[in-house]
């Protein structure tokens, strides 16, 4: 399920499987920002480019925040000009996360944000919520905390999970 979702996000934001941006402009979408009155306003690309040329002492943090619209779902790693999904993939069974690592999307994800347990919940809510899930919950919350700290303005979370089984229902209810 995770690779299908991130495949769609990559297509929408024009990010290749290796994390490089195909284009600085996202087709069909306009850039917007929040103005001083806390309202959305369109960004005129040409005027922004002129302002950037005029400013010579612009801070690196500001440059990073305006790199692209893709930074909503992807974190821009400036050292190697790569985009990494802002996500934490979790499963109690190791084989599911191992499949993600071995897939064509494996290089896209930050390896530290792929979390798996040592045993599955055997399609049992109680095992996923009370026993096996409890052992992995602190690690998952630590990884989520790191993702939040790495963002400029965290506006919310998107949980993509199956609602059946021990991992889908049990452990996810710990985080909701």
From TrEMBL:
Residues 2-174 form the Tubulin/FtsZ GTPase domain. It comes from Reticulomyxa filosa. One of its GO terms (cellular component) is microtubule. This is Alpha-tubulin. Pfam families: Tubulin. It comes from the Eukaryota. Keywords: GTP-binding, Microtubule, Nucleotide-binding. The keyword Nucleotide-binding applies. Belongs to the tubulin family. GO terms for molecular function: GTP binding. GO terms for biological process: microtubule-based process. The lineage of its organism: Eukaryota, Sar, Rhizaria, Retaria, Foraminifera.
């Amino acid at each position: 399920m995770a690779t299908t979702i991130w495949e769609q996000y990559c297509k929408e934001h024009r990010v290749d499987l290796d994390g490089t941006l195909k284009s600085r402009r996202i087709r069909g979408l306009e850039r917007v920002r929040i103005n001083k009155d806390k309202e959305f306003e369109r960004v005129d690309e040409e005027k922004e480019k002129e302002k950037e040329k005029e400013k010579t002492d612009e801070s690196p943090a500001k440059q990073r925040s305006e790199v692209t619209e893709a930074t909503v779902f992807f974190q821009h790693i400036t050292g190697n000009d790569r985009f990494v999904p802002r996500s934490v993939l979790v499963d109690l069974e190791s084989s599911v996360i191992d499949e993600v690592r071995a897939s064509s999307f494996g290089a896209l994800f930050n390896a530290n944000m792929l979390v798996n347990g040592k045993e599955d919940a055997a399609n049992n809510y109680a095992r996923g919520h009370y026993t096996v899930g409890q052992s992995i919950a602190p690690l998952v919350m630590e990884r989520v905390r790191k993702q939040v700290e790495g963002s400029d303005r965290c506006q919310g979370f998107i949980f993509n999970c199956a609602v059946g089984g021990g991992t889908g229902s049990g452990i996810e209810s710990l985080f909701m």
